[in-house]
Amino acid sequence: MPSLKELLKEAKAELARADYEEAVKISKDILFQDPDNYFAHVFLGKAYSCIQGELSKSIEHYTIATKLLPDNALAWKGLFIVLGMPEVIPNIVTFDSYFDLCTSYAQVLSRNELPQVELIHEIRLIKKKFPESHESFYRHMRPGTPMAETLGRHLMKPVEALENLIDIVSKKELKEISQVVSRERLQLRASDPDYQIKMNELAWKIYEHSELDELYNQLINILDDDDKRSKYESASLEYRIKVLKSMPKDIKLNYFVRVKNMVEDMVLVNHNSLTAWKLFFEWQDYEDLDKMDKSVILKFFKKFPKEPLAIMLYAWICSSFSKYDIDEFDNDSKQKESHLEVDEQDEDEPIDETIEQDLKEMEETEEETMGIFEEDVLIALNDNITKTQNSALAHRIISQYYIFTKEYEEALPYIKQGISLVAYKIRDLGCQLFNTKREFSLTLATCYTYVDAPQYHKAALTLFDKILLESPDNSRAKMGKGIIFIERENWKEANELLEQVINQFPNNLEVVSEYGWTKSNLGEVDEGLKILNDTLHKIEGNDLRTAEFRALTMWRKAKTYIFKEMQFPSSSMEYIKESFKILVQLIKLLDTFAPAYSTLGDIYSLYYNDKSRAFKCYYKAFDLNAGDIVAAKYITEMYTNNANWEAAVQISERLVKAEKAKRILQSTSWPYRVLGIAYLQNQQESSSIEWFQSAIRVDPNDIESWVGLGQAYLACGRIEASMKVFEKAMELDGSHLHAQYFKALALADMGEFSASIDLLTSVTELNPTEESFHISLATTLVNYAYDLYFEGYLIKGISIVIESINVIKYITTELQCFSQVLWTNLSKVLKLFISVESKIDSLPVEALVDIFSSKDMVGTKEVDDIDQTTLDILLSKSDSDNISIGCQFLILAAKYSVPSDSLKGLSSTIRSAIWYNIGIAELNAFLILKQDKYRDAAIFCFKNSIKYQSNTAEAWIGLGISTMDLNYRVAQHCFIKAVALDPKNTEIWFNLAMLGLRHDDITFAKEVLNRSQSVAPQDSVPWLGMALVSELKGDKQESSRLFAHAFVLSNGKSKMAQILYAKSVLQNHVGQGNDERDLEAVAELTAVINGLDQYYKKSPDNAFAIECGLLALERLQNYKLAAQMTQNLTALLEKRFEKNQDDQELFNFGIVRAQFARIQLGLGNFESAIENAELSQGIMDDFTNKDILSTKISNHISLGLAFFLWYDFDSTLVHFQELLNISKESQSLVALIAKVLFDVGTEETKSTAMQELTDYISEHRSDLLVTITIAAMTIIDNKKDDLKIILQELKSLDLPDIVNDKHKDTTLLIEKITEKVYNDDIDEVSKNRAWQTTAFLFPNDYKAWTEIDKTTERRVATNFENKLSAAQMSEVYANSKNLRNIQRGLFLCPWNTNTIAAFSGCF
Predict the structure, then answer these.
(1) Are 871 and 857 in contact (CB under 8 A)?
(2) What is the DSSP letter of 1307?
(3) Mean local confidence (pLDDT), 1318-1339
(4) In residue terms, where are the TPR repeats (predicted)?
(5) Measured between alpha carbons, how far is 1309 from 1275 in angstroms, rounded to an integer?
(6) Are 1162 and 1114 in contact (CB under 8 A)?
């Protein structure tokens, strides 16, 4: 076996020949003999490094070799050659292993005194090549590590290594936490109360094994740079807080103590970390805010003057409510500064002038910042609390401040937020904040004592009990319970509780004072005075809180003397005087103590009866304390008694907004009522509603507030709501006059005038001297009358206005009230009388004379000279008719509304309105009476109205109408001006169009009316104008359509539409030969009669309207009513003729007599018909114009028929012969004569009748009416030969004739003739062939199906294309033989005997 030396040589030789496998084999043989052979491992390392894939074995053997001979550099060099190969680091050797090897190699090189340059270069290359190696590198470079000690001076300083390592580790942790949270968050619910805790636990899994805290400590310990150390101390603190939040509860407390100590140490060394300072104050858990170290606070404030928490702390110590003396603190600061100056002066070193100047400026700045004025304290707190939302201490400070200022409601949200913050800090940080938590609970209980008391008293007691359970000796909690009893005025329990507290805390003066006060309220006034006196003697100190406590105790003493005076009254009021002295002393001591002034006000008002001084005291008390309801009530009553509602509102608003008054306002409603009334007077109804509702919520039985609320609803237009409110008020007090009164007004606004009038009548009877009640009654009566007028109940409306005149008479003659509303109502009453001329005779002239006689007319002399209308002139006339008297009374009503001789004291708007009212009355008189003096007076008045106010359209309209007949240009200017002011008023456009029509400018009128239609298409006036334009243009069909449309739009109630529509309809139907079976014509004529019925009530003497009515009634065969109207018309014409002796009136009289003859003929009064026809004929003989022909024909027809029906056939033939001599052109006239002759019954007359008909056909073309008449006569005579000819003639009628046969008379005649001619020789199909043809030609005409199919007849009849009367529809339903349809027919026409019979046949 070869020796080791030989094997080593062989192995070395093989390596030299690059036979690495053989070298490996030989080296292994060496190791077999000597396992610790250094060179064998080196040779293996070298050989394996040259064999692909064996680098790990190479490193292994090199590493063994370095361990065998650590100081031999051969193996190290080979190892680092391998480490420098690609893919070795970090795939085979980790970064940590690499840097460990580097450390060992560096030590070897150092011991061998070999250069380290190449190694350092390799390390730098690795660091640059692999950024992920940085963490391992920095860890090996930490202070105290071998690598840092050996290579640190060449590679990196330890501080830099730690800084970089901290940065890498912190980012790595944050990334890991983010990944864990993102992964686990989906499994958690955000609504879970423990959501944040669970999230923190996820972070703790990372923080639990973190070395970051240790790294921070190590870095901070080696840092020489103060700024850097401060920076990393702050970062360490932030990191520890994060760790603290994530820790489990069981270990959180110990770590919190560690963090807290760190914070305190940082503050102790005046660290620059704002977080440390804030946490320092947050975690101190002060027992009392007055026990904070003010020097630390000031140091905090000076260091961070813009930090909100620092500002709030500084504001608190500067507040007068804290026990800190800021002036004393300033002196201490100055003394310290002076000591420093002395020390500095002891030094021999000179001070630079620039530095000295900077120091002086800093001192001046500090002096300026020392102290905050009290008025700025609250501003500072409020401005900064929003910036410290996570600070429990900040919320504790501001809530404590509000508690001291007794603004409990303002403090409440801050207390609740503070409690939440304490809970979060305890939960998240493990803070020990027992004092803070207790203080928040005490302040919360205190707030609950006063806020919305006694609503939260139970909660307050629970809190106090909980505090006492934890701290049985807590005096504040016990006193708090006593105060609750005092607030409840449960003096006995309060006394018992406070007595227990005093036994425990005899030196607590606040408790003693409360105890004395309970004694006083229990009636033990002497004992109470003794306790209060003792308390006053023991009070020490001059700060604000002490001064307020002293003032409170003195006030209680003064009130106790008043109690004593009430118990033991004396004539000299010695106790009141003593109380007075104490209060005066109190005010001198503290002039801002509001209860003192209020109590002085009580003394002045109740005992000294000095209202002036009482008012001043109460006012001062209320100024200091807006929650003093006693003072507020006294002041408000004084203001309201003097009608100073504006001041009363200011007082009430301050009282309602005052937090201190909220409790008493829960049972006091008058402030809300005062505000509601004031807002209602200012016409701010929506606001007043809210105030009245508030008053009612406080006191549901406050009837005045109910009435006010109803009045506000009424003013807002919420009438139904106001009705419910008034009904509620009347439930509370059925005799309340104003509730009844306003309910009546609400009923009137709802249109229930009857109930309203009854209620108002009852109210006026109960209070006959109240003017407003009577005026409202008169107004309601007038409104009711107009409502009836517009609904068409004109006569009833007149009866109502007569009642209103009587009411107005009572107001003017008995109450001597001449309100503007009164004259306005009277004007409306008289205008209604004038509008309904048919009832003008019922005008109560005597009552009106009494009304106008009760007041002198003033200020209208100028217009009196024009219209000559005064009460004296009116009474002196004896020939005036009623309509003229009514018009003059209307003018007088407008004139009497003028309040005085001179209108200069009135506003221009009122003066304009007065002249306008007079002008409109004058214009109405002119339009009715047609007397120029009234038109001139109207023009004068309208001009004056425009002079005072030119921006209202109404006066321009009136002036335009007044000047239409005088000056076209002036009228046009007026209407254009009115249009500019009110472009949507259709009446202006209509007047302008009528002005154009009067001057034949049809194009202009049409353009104006088109514009008017676009403005208000729903208004009937523009359509009437367009109808008139179409009529003037000769478009009769279009004008007729427009007149009908306008009549429909006006609901048949427009006077102008009524007469124009009647005229249009009659023009379409009179003389057109319409069949009386034409339902459309009957419907239109019926509408005309209904419209004219209203028209007659308004204008009963309009001859044209009466004539239109007569024509319509005659065609509707309503002869009875027509006869009455004829009598009226003839009487009117006779009166006119007697007055004017005008031949035209005589001619019209003759026409009316002819018409009357026809009407009498229709009534069967043949003798009267003959008499009137002969009278008319005699009158017509005296005239020669062409219009007499139709009247003469009418007279001859009337006479002929009357004599015929009177069996005077000779006279009949005479008149018929005259008719034939006058005209043979009218087929209707020829047919009438033929019918009469045929009806005589002789062969001669029948032959003559047939001859006349055939002569007409021979002279003219075949006429449908004549043909049908011949056919009917032939059927009656039963001449079969002639019937065949007639049948052929009827079947060969032209299509236009068939179409004009609307009632299918030809089809019926064909059927009848066919039956006559063929008897039974024709089948049913042939028999109905004529009807089938008709049905084919007119499938939508139900008559065509009558003989074919009853079901189809009913369906066609009900498809809305046929116009049927109720009787016809009933007949159709009866023919269906169906019970349900028969019942429908019976419902439509109960008097139809055929339907009744069909119904009976069903059972």
Answers:
(1) yes
(2) H
(3) 68
(4) 475-508, 669-702, 703-736
(5) 9
(6) yes
**What gap in Å lies between CA 336 and CA 200, rounded to an integer?**
48
Cα of first residue to Cα of last residue in the chain, in angstroms, is 147
Q: Between vectors from CA 959 to CA 955 and to CA 964, what angle results, nearest 5°?
A: 150
User: Distance between CA atoms of 210 and 172, rounded to whole angstroms?
Assistant: 11
CB atoms within 10 A of CB 913: 20
Q: Which amino acid belongs to residue 1226?
A: S
Q: Which of 397-411, 637-651, 717-731 has the lowest mean pLDDT?
A: 397-411
Q: What is the pLDDT of residues 1103-1142, one digit of tens each?
A: 888 888 888 888 888 888 888 888 888 887 787 777 777 7
Give the tokens for residue 702.
């406050």
The closest of 1260, 1316, 1261 to 1286, measured between CA atoms, is: 1316
The whole-number pLDDT of residue 666 equals 80
Instruction: Mark 735-749 as b/e (b = at least 16 C-beta within 10 Å).
Output: ebebbbbbbbbbbbb
Residue 630 Cα to chain centre, angstroms: 37
Query: Average of pLDDT values for 923-945?
Result: 91
- Which token pair is 1046? 């306008």
Q: Are 1074 and 1093 in contact (CB under 8 A)?
A: no
The DSSP symbol for 350 reads: P
Average pLDDT over residues 1058-1084: 75
In the prediction, which pLDDT does 808 show?
Answer: 92
Say which residue, 887 or 1280, is predicted with more confidence: 887
Query: How many other CB atoms are there within 10 angstroms of residue 556's CB atom?
Result: 23
User: In whole angstroms, what is the distance from residue 139 CA to residue 1102 CA?
Assistant: 122
- Contact in structure between 967 and 984 (CB atoms under 8 Å): no
Give alpha helix (H) positions in 1260-1349.
1264-1277, 1280-1291, 1295-1300, 1305-1318, 1324-1327, 1329-1337
Task: Report whether 1239 contacts 1216 (CB < 8 A).
Answer: no
The values of phi and psi at residue 71, to 5°, are -90, 0
User: Which ranges in 930-967 belong to alpha helices (H)?
Assistant: 932-948, 953-962
Containing 16, the helix (H) or strand (E) segment is: helix 4-16
pLDDT, tens digit, 9 for 90 and up, residues 1206-1249? 777 778 778 777 777 776 667 777 777 878 877 777 777 778 77
Contact 1217, 1197 (CB under 8 A): no
Ramachandran assignment for 267, one of left (phi > 0), alpha (psi -120 to 50 degrees), beta (any other): alpha
CA distance 1271 to 1290: 8
Q: Is 88 left (phi over 0), alpha (psi -120 to 50) or beta?
A: alpha
**What's the per-residue H, E or C state across 602-641?**
HHHHHCCCCHHHHHHHHHHHHHHCCCCHHHHHHHHHHHHH
Q: Would you give the distance in Å from CA 146 to the centre of its chain?
A: 81
Using DSSP's 3-state secondary structure scheme, residue 335 falls into: helix
The pTM of this model reads 0.63
Is 420 a residue whose pLDDT tops 70? Answer: yes
| Contact criterion met (CB below 8 Å) for 157 and 137 | no
Q: What is the CA radius of gyration of the chain?
A: 59
Report, as an integer, the average pLDDT of 5-33: 79
Cβ(674)–Cβ(640) under 8 Å?
Answer: yes
- Residue 342: the pLDDT is 37
Q: In the chain, what percentage of residues exceed pLDDT 90?
A: 15
Q: Mean pLDDT throughout 877-882?
A: 75
Of the candidates 299, 296, 269, the residue with the CA atom closest to the CA atom of residue 284: 296
Mean pLDDT of the chain: 82
Q: With 50 as the cut, is the pLDDT of residue 368 above it?
A: no
The residue type of 514 is E
Residue 714 to residue 718: CA distance in whole angstroms: 6
Q: Is 1331 exposed, middle or buried (0-12, 13-18, 19+ CB in 10 A)?
A: buried
What is the C-alpha to C-alpha distance for residues 981 and 1015, in angstroms, rounded to an integer?
A: 14
**What number is the average pLDDT over the span 798-820?**
90
The answer to whether 80 touches 48, Cβ cutoff 8 Å, is no
